[in-house]
Structures
1.
Amino acid sequence: MSHALNIAAANVNAPRIDESTPHALPSLAGMGRAQLREAALACGVEERKAKMRANQLFGWIYHYGSTSFDEMTNIDKETRARLAAHYTLDRPRILERLVSTDGTRKYLIELAPGVECETVFIPDVARSGALCVSSQVGCTLNCTFCHTGTQALVRNLTAAEIVAQVMIARDDLAEWPSSNDDRKVTNIVFMGMGEPLYNLDHVSDSIDTISDPEGMAIGRRRITVSTSGVVPKIAELGTRTNTMLAISLHATNDALRDELVPLNKKYPLKALMDAIRAYPGLNNSRRITFEYVMLKGVNDSLAEARALVKLLKGVPAKINLIPFNPWPNSPYECSDWPQIVAFADLVNKAGYASPIRTPRGRDIFAACGQLRSESKKVKASELKKQRLAEQAAAGQ
Ligand code: SAH
Ligand code: SF4
């Protein structure tokens, strides 16, 4: 029996877009400083004041979590009125909000009509809590153990859509202003839907906003980006974002990794390990996290544990062993618990921290690799048709 409590309709603090309005105004929530400056200019703020106004807006939106322009008391009334006539501070709509018996929260978020992503808040890891954000709707890669991999890529998320996921969680957890001492969302992990390094520009912009000390101020060392191994983008991730790196490894030889993470055929282990060794800022205080999903009879033998130790020799690393989380018709089984423990012990004795990740939010289907939305890829020709129909309806 599931104890999940679906209270989607209740207690969602975020403002909602009025669906009766055919042309909703764009929202400033999620925009970075440069976009806020453009927005200020676009609604008549003088060029010489635009930067100041953008900074003020930035503070209200990301420090205070403002949902109304009225409270922005350091901005004159007339400018506030103009801003309100052109923009909102709405967050994307929460379609479903599920709370697990273990406190994990999962949000199904509507980014645009028919475009949905999932975001998961996991309490009590690291100092306090991690928010697992999505960078794409669907994924182009087809890792055989991952539910998201069975969904075609719908599209990359914009930076604003990534930032909005953090805002939605903070609205729900009532943790504005950002200076609040007992913050719950202390860490961000890009381990939701999608491959972040295939959307690096937007991921990088979103990290600039999320980590900005005058806003939500989640430090770059508390932000982890997980990749399945997009080798040519790994160094760029480091230089542009200065965040922590996680690698979804899952196998220690090319034959098996080719099967589990098909991207390995393009970027095999040797190339991946070279890129990891060259990751900017790598040292013992900035270890790389390796994720290793435990698949019964597939990659969980002690010989593989030894091969893992050998492969990672000389790399400051932590190995997260993830018990496989099943999904409907998934082709694997999770390793038996004693086997996971024996694997962890061997790796640990070789000098690597090797925590076994406790599955969280299983009752609400929120664990690693279980995220998948119903959004479907729509052909460009279909989109055009839809747009023309909307324009025709609006003109009537
Ligand atoms: N695309 C990125 C980030 C998202 S996946 C990546 O692959 O790294 C986040 C983590 O969950 C990855 O390590 C992924 O391999 C793992 N994962 C995927 N499906 C899983 C499953 N069914 N059970 C356990 N972990 C899974
Ligand atoms: Fe995509 Fe990551 Fe899932 Fe692989 S594990 S299919 S890269 S989301």
2.
Amino acid sequence: MRDLTAVKSALKNHQIELPSWAFGNSGTRFKVFGQPGVPRNPYEKADDAAQVHKYTGVAPIMAVHIPWDKVDDYAALSAHARDNGIRIGAVNANVFQDDDYKLGSVCNPDPKSRKKALAHLLECVDIMDATGSRDLKLWFADGTNYPGQDDISARQDRLAEALAAVYARLGDGQRMLLEYKLFEPSFYTTDVPDWGTALLHCQALGGKAQVVVDTGHHAPGVNIEFIVALLLKSGKLGGFDFNSRFYADDDLMVGAADPFQLFRIMHEVVKAAALYEGQPLEITARSGAAANSVDTKQPYGAFNDPPSSPDGSSTQITATSASARSAEEGGARPGWITATGAAARADTAAARADTAAARADTAAARATSAPARAGGPGIAFMLDQCHNIEPKIPAQIRSVMNVQEAVAKALLVDAGALREAQLAGDVLEANAVLMDAYNTDVRPLLAELREEMGLAPDPVRAYLASGYAEKIASERIGGTAAGWGA
Ligand code: PSV
Ligand code: MN
């Protein structure tokens, strides 16, 4: 039996980040169905995001997407968010919507397009400085449609060069999150198609570069929790873009298509004590009997490479990655994305020194750049969704609740019993222990938690009864409703 007080405390500490773009109009390439009351600017998006936080209590962060959320004064946007009880989270760069990017952005064969893309990425770091955001989120639509269209390997070098330049611009307490996606808009090659590619680049860059797992960005049938487990072990899981998919990158509400997958993902996170920085070990799946048999260290701090065990061994895949090793031994091949590539070349030592400094500095950074860490420490649990036919604010509330349900179930896994069954090779019992947690109805527990937090037990109902939807529908008349491109 789990300690429910500890479970509830973990649930209160676990924060979810909302995408500003989910509040704007969206659709498919066939049709965008406008909705009444949709925000006309980033300030109104923040107002709507604040509603989601108001009724869930665990979503105090809104990610922005530039230029969709371009404003004259980012500090003012940040202050507006704060006045509404939330803060600005990840700054998402957008190097996929301009004509110059037809053949790619940072991987484009044309240096002019690459230069323009890089300037935008650097501008996004300036914006982070103004908003106090911790994370720069990078997703590249770059790729090719036809075999022979461009040199696959040369494009990787161009990518590494741009990433290194952006990496060098990151300040204390800032991170770069690299997101991969199997295909779309490119259909033959994508320049960051998978977690392996993203991980290689991030390892070459250093401790401030981490991978983002968007749950809609894999081939059908891929075991996402396995990827999550490996990224956690390598200290390189920077965040999630949660959403659901039935077929491709559907961007539906997280937990709608496959709540069991979401639970399995969160089970890995909970087990690694990575739900939030400082997640106590007694509420991880390493508690009880398990604590005696496995390393109970926290997986990694937000900016640190994974720690090694006191005996020098490690239960984690550490920074002695193949690329780092080969660079150290002088064995790196020019032109590859090891720490010998481009600015990274200048930077193996620097990146490592940087990593060490970041490590030494984590505490200091925490103390001195509190605003720069506004995203909160550790993994960013972001949503990346589009609500094409359902009302947006309640859909975001529902999504947050779905994540919470998965987390609650993951926290209920009887870690001791699971470990025991695993070590005994009791396949059926181990599976039964996991399924017991998954099959628990956690809705009463979450309702109780909300009441303890002074919230209504049913956030969607409370929002619908509040009259906010009617208010914005009547007030937000005129202007241009936000949508992609605005
Ligand atoms: C790309 O499909 C993606 O997942 C990236 O995160 C973009 O920033 C986002 O979607 C845009 O909605
Ligand atoms: Mn995404």
